[in-house]
Design a protein that fits this description.
The chain is mainly α and 198 residues long. The protein is 64% helix and 0% strand. The protein is elongated, with a radius of gyration of 19 Å.
């Protein structure tokens, strides 16, 4: 078998199996289906071009996410004449409601990932995600939606673990406030949905 055919077969086996995951993450980062399609396509084109550099036995999904994250950040930096700055002193660290502190969708067995995506990620929730500063949004997509560890997220984003934890903490705080307002608006607080009841 020729080298190009072997490369294609290996790429299909190792990389293309992550196509749907990459697209969903790209959608979370960009907030637009058209931009997500472009980002996912560019990610796989870049990955195929440099596939010889991918080492067998390593995490191909993490490698693809690193490529996608770099592409997204570079495109974002070109688009913006000046990046958005965040004053950390303005980020409030308290909870709107003490009841919210005990809610954890990701570890609640009654709220699987399908339930989360079907019931939470509507237009309002996507808007909340898009309103996060770029670095916060990428960190949430990688850690909370894709399930990468702090260490993996730090490698993918070329950040320190402490930076990842700080971004995630602050992003979750912002999302918590928005989700609380969304849950009240949509009647979920009074119907017990926040505790996993169907």
């Amino acid at each position: 078998m020729q080298a190009s055919a072997l490369k294609k077969k290996r790429f299909e086996k190792e990389a293309l199996i992550h196509l749907e995951i990459i697209f969903r993450a790209a959608l979370g980062m960009t907030g637009s289906e058209m931009e997500a399609e472009d980002l996912a396509q560019e990610t796989f084109l870049r990955a195929y071009k440099f596939f010889e550099k991918f080492e067998d036995g390593t995490n191909c999904k993490a490698w693809l996410f690193k490529i996608m994250t770099n592409l997204f950040i570079n495109k974002y930096n070109r688009r913006k004449s000046r990046p958005v700055t965040v004053c950390f002193d303005d980020v409030e660290d308290f909870y709107l409601n003490p009841q919210i502190d005990s809610i954890d969708y990701l570890s609640n067995i009654d709220c699987g990932s399908d339930w989360i995506f079907e019931n939470l990620l509507d237009d309002d929730i996507r808007r909340l995600l898009q309103e996060l500063p770029e670095d916060f949004r990428i960190t949430v997509v990688l850690c909370d939606i894709q399930g990468f560890s702090y260490e993996e997220t730090a490698r993918i984003t070329d950040s320190k673990i402490g930076t990842v934890k700080s971004r995630l903490f602050r992003a979750r705080g912002k999302l918590r406030k928005g989700l609380y307002a969304w849950a009240r608006k949509n009647g979920y607080l009074s119907r017990g949905i926040l505790h996993g009841a169907a």
